[in-house]
Design goal:
Elements (H helix, E strand, L loop, with lengths): L1 H41 L3 H5 L13 H7 L2 H33 L6 H10 L7 H10 L7 H4 L6 H14 L2 H9 L4 H9 L4 H17 L2 H6 L8 H17 L7 H42 L2
Helix pairs in contact: 1-14, 3-14, 4-8, 4-11, 4-13, 8-11, 8-14, 11-14, 13-14
Membrane topology: Multi-pass membrane protein
Keywords: Cell membrane, Membrane, Transmembrane, Transmembrane helix, Transport
Protein name: Carbohydrate ABC transporter permease
């Protein structure tokens, strides 16, 4: 009887594993194919890409797209601006989030429950795009990098995750003992709390940095000077130009422009995504840990 049950369970496990592997394989193909196509198209002859001949492997291998990128000043300006916005923005985000999350994690803060309720409401309701734009304009931040940094200085979800970490991972008794020894609140934060919070700080840096790197809507609304465009906005312009040129392709003399736009388009997508693609496998565990911290305890 026991052997039959064991055999039956083993058979069921094999069927279940087969189904899981099949579903996982389908998901992997669906997720990876667009990336594989972009890589192949960036190394292919643009005429073959437009003709729909590129499916998996490059056709008419060439590096003209990447040569054009190296000589495209706008792309390098966009790269520089994106790196600058990401570094400064992440630093501001991290400082503001820590300074807000730590007081809210302390049980001796009067009215912290009400404050958290007000903060949480901002996840569901906001002033809207037009009032926010008018505020940014009145503050004189339009067409400056601060318009991309200050309005989103604190992400509510990240604030809740960091506050939860402070509450659940750092014993309140440790903080009380530090106060008894004469430690000030500022010294407590810098000398005890932050050194014990390196995992959550790493998570916040990753969350905010990836958000800044991929962001383009704020720049689309607030930035007018092309010299201040981030990389994602430069990429958007290239894609729009490529589309408009292709739609007007019946006019004489536009064939070279269509091919140039098509060759650059996929290469720019790959170049703009490459830093995140390289970074993510090394920091995936931090992302998972950050999500689990926020989901287990609130």
């Amino acid at each position: 009887m026991t052997n039959e049950t064991t055999i039956s369970r083993s058979s069921d496990d094999r069927v279940f594993d087969a189904i899981i592997y099949a579903v996982a394989a389908v998901i992997i193909v669906v997720v990876l194919y667009p990336l594989i196509f972009i890589v192949s198209a960036s190394f292919s002859d643009p005429t073959k890409v437009l003709a729909g001949e590129v499916w998996l492997l490059p056709k008419g291998f060439n590096l003209n797209a990447y040569a054009n990128i190296l000589h495209n000043e706008k792309i390098w300006i966009g790269y520089r601006n994106t790196i600058l916005y990401t570094v400064i923005g992440t630093f501001v985000n991290l400082i503001m989030t820590i300074l807000a999350a730590y007081p809210l994690s302390r049980p001796d803060l009067p009215g912290r429950g009400f404050i958290m309720l007000i903060i949480t409401l901002t996840m569901f309701f906001s002033g809207g795009l037009i009032p926010t734009y008018l505020l940014v304009k009145d503050l004189g931040m339009v067409n400056t990098m601060w318009a991309l940094i200050v309005p989103g200085a604190i992400a509510t979800y990240n604030l809740i995750v960091m506050r939860t970490y402070f509450q659940s991972s750092i014993p309140w008794e440790l903080q009380e003992a530090a106060h008894i020894d004469g430690c000030s609140n500022w010294r407590l934060l810098t000398s005890i709390i932050l050194p014990l919070s390196k995992p959550i700080i790493a998570v916040m840096v990753l969350f905010y940095a990836v958000g800044h790197w991929n962001s383009f809507f704020g720049a689309l609304i607030y930035i007018r000077d092309e010299a201040l465009f981030p990389l994602q906005l430069v990429l958007r312009e290239i894609l729009l130009i490529s589309q408009s040129v292709a739609e007007d392709g019946a006019n004489v003399g536009l064939e070279d422009k269509i091919l140039l736009a098509e060759s650059i388009k996929y290469a720019v997508i790959l170049v703009s995504s490459l830093p995140v693609l390289i970074m993510y496998p090394f920091v995936q565990r931090h992302f998972v840990k950050g999500v689990m911290i926020g989901s287990i305890k609130g």
